[in-house]
Amino acid sequence: MSDIVFRGGRAEGKVSPPPSKSHTHRAIIMSALSEGRCEVSSPLISFDTRATMDAVRAMGAVVTEREGSVTVECESIHAPDRTIDVMNSGTTMRLMTGISSLFSEKVVLTGDSSIQKRPMGPLLDSLSAAGVECSSNGGKPPVEVRGPITGSELVIDGGVSSQFVSSLIMSSPLTGRPTDVRITGHLVSKPYIDITTSMMGKFGVEVTEEGNVFHAEPQHYMPTDYRVPADFSSSAFPLVAGGIAGRVTARGMDMSDPQGDRKIIDVLKEAGCDVEVSGDEVTCSNTGRLEGAEIDMGDIPDLFPVVAVLLSTAKGRSRLYGAPHLRFKESDRIALTENMLRTLGADIRGTEDGCVIEGVERLHGGRIEHNGDHRMMMAAAVASLVSDGPVSMENDACWNVSYPGFPEQMRSIGMDIEGL
């Protein structure tokens, strides 16, 4: 497979980041659970969200893609009629495991080699304690579940993945009895739980939150037309590009949406970028060499690679902390980010829950390994803007997982790219 090469440039212009992947996954699943006809407008159509579409088709939904929308129709949800192959989508694996536990028939969920390395143990342990028969490959996929859930309380460790918690909360109104989801330990990525409960409300399901317990009475999801907002985690890549090498505007941003990755605006400001918000547009401009910062990544783990790039050439020491769960993402994102930036000339040291960066004036470029991780690939591309030499990597189009058209958009604002 040939390489794609990013030769830096100056980032100037406007882009429209893709719709939110997190919202799209949830909207498709909730539409199928509503057992009616729903139109999801402005969805992200990607490898991952297509995996979720295929999963709900296996449960009886008819999913139709149109330009700018997806229609989901389902008369009666049932246990999947075949093995669910989530491909590389961890979100599909985790959310669909909870939904599959509602059925009395055995459901098998699997995925590619990367998915088969990702932990599922805490979610399966929670379901097992509530009466679900579960088996796995040492706590990793493939997994088998046979429900239904018979307990009235689902207890889950919140320290590994918020998707485990979302999976249980989305399932809880459908157990046929009042159900509590009780979280133990420190809950990571809380804003993603807020997205889940907010969207459930839009589909007619009320969940109450008191302390570390989410409570749902027996309810039904209601057919709803839903519009997916733009994705702040994707917007971080062009905004950081503007912050280190020019001036870039991201359009279509909903500042009232509970996406945790809105925090990218605060991170950019803390590093010394000039950030302007006007309506649904966010503009980030470079103000010279940036300043080091200490950033708690606990609720914004998806921003880790690109924030590390942002701070790699900032003055002084920076520390990213609070996100040990990064080691269980598509890859060990702490190790992979450390290796990527070291290869490009950064002074970075991975820690248990993040990294420490001693800013250098410029990176020198090089060939990096992204291991098929879309966020790593895109972060490395942005790093080329502060590199004296080119940044090259395998051209496997992994950006399509979350940001279809990423290279074309970056080229449109001035990045020099070879190999498209």
TrEMBL record:
One Gene Ontology molecular-function label: 3-phosphoshikimate 1-carboxyvinyltransferase activity
SUPFAM superfamilies tied to this protein: EPT/RTPC-like
Catalytic activity: 3-phosphoshikimate + phosphoenolpyruvate = 5-O-(1-carboxyvinyl)-3-phosphoshikimate + phosphate
Domain (Enolpyruvate transferase): residue spans on this chain: 8-410
Origin superkingdom: Archaea
Biological processes annotated in GO: amino acid biosynthetic process; aromatic amino acid family biosynthetic process; chorismate biosynthetic process
EC numbers on record: 2.5.1.19
Alphabetical UniProt keywords: Amino-acid biosynthesis, Aromatic amino acid biosynthesis, Cytoplasm, Transferase
Chain segments carrying region Disordered: 1-24
InterPro entries (UniProt xref): Enolpyruvate_Tfrase_dom (IPR001986), Enolpyruvate_Tfrase_sf (IPR036968), EPSP_synthase (IPR006264), EPSP_synthase_CS (IPR023193), RNA3'P_cycl/enolpyr_Trfase_a/b (IPR013792)
Binding site for 3-phosphoshikimate: 21-22, 26, 161-163, 189, 302, 329
Location relative to the cell: Cytoplasm
Associated pathway: Metabolic intermediate biosynthesis; chorismate biosynthesis; chorismate from D-erythrose 4-phosphate and phosphoenolpyruvate: step 6/7
Annotated active site: 302 (proton acceptor)
Gene3D superfamilies in the cross-refs: Enolpyruvate transferase domain
Binding positions for phosphoenolpyruvate per the UniProt entry: 21, 90, 118, 163, 333, 375
Quaternary structure and interacting proteins, as annotated: Monomer.
Family recorded in the similarity comment: Belongs to the EPSP synthase family.
Its biological purpose: Catalyzes the transfer of the enolpyruvyl moiety of phosphoenolpyruvate (PEP) to the 5-hydroxyl of shikimate-3-phosphate (S3P) to produce enolpyruvyl shikimate-3-phosphate and inorganic phosphate.
Protein name: 3-phosphoshikimate 1-carboxyvinyltransferase
Organism: Methanomethylophilus alvi (strain Mx1201)
The gene coding this protein: aroA
